[in-house]
Amino acid sequence: MSNGTSPAKDRPSVGRTLQQARIDARLTVDEVSSATRVRAQIIHAIEADDFSRCGGDVYARGHIRMIARAVGLDPAEVIALYAEQEGEATLPPPTAPVFEAERIRPEPRRPNWTAAMVAAIVAVIAFVGFTFAGGGGGGSAGSVANESPSPSPTAEDGEEGAEQESEAPPVDPEPDPSDEAVAGVPADKVTVVATVESGSSWISAKDASGRLLFEGVLEDGDSQTFVDDEQIDLVLGNAGAVQLHVNGKPLESVGELGQVQRLTYTKGDPEEG
């Protein structure tokens, strides 16, 4: 276009210019619509110079730019033609400030719940910290007041303490578990406690009726107790490793290591069968 532009009435209209460019580019309305995302009905209306379906001047300019670019025209020249055709003496200001103004338009203030929650949390932390600080100070002061310095021990106190310590009765050693078990045996029954003290031993125990009370291997430190009204029959696979307490009395030896022993015990003093 030359610097001295002719009036818009001496040139093809915006719609005719876009339509002719589309035809020269061998494009259909549907193809232009797919490329610009502008509905085909609006493209038809623009090509007929009907801009009322665009939704306003701003949208009309936007559609014209996209269609001009799609059919190979300079969007600025087509917009200038549109401005002359619509009777505008000068070009309108660019649309960007309009959209910018709309974008920065202040929105109604909403309650800032995040800030409120942060403020509440800070207040709680401050209150808890103040409470602990006050409580800690009071407690420490009270404890300092209550803790009066103890008088230094005198020589007489030391002598009295030594006498008390010397007069204190000796502490009895804790009873052995096997001794406690033996001490509680009933007098009207036969009770045998078998404890393996070194190695292991296979042991079998039966009552007076022949009912099997136990049969298995006891390892070092294991113990079994057998009780019957009349009689206990034992078989020890490694007699030297077994320590027996019969009716509350320990037996010194019931056999040698590796020796198999068959023993029978009744009420009263232990007697080997």
Provide the gyration radius in Å: 56 Å
Shape: rod-shaped
Q: Please give the share of residues in helix.
A: 40-55%
Summarize the biggest pleated sheet: 4 strands, antiparallel
Class of secondary structure makeup: alpha+beta
Poorly predicted ranges (pLDDT <50, ≥5 residues)?
Answer: 1-8, 89-107, 136-149
Q: How confident is the prediction overall: mean pLDDT?
A: 75
How is the quaternary structure best described? single chain
Number of strands: 8
Strand order of the largest sheet: 4-1-6-7
- The fraction of residues in strands falls at 15-25%
Counting DSSP H or I runs of 4 or more residues, the number of helices is 9
Please sum up the structure shown.
By secondary structure, the protein is an alpha+beta fold. The chain has nine helices and eight strands.
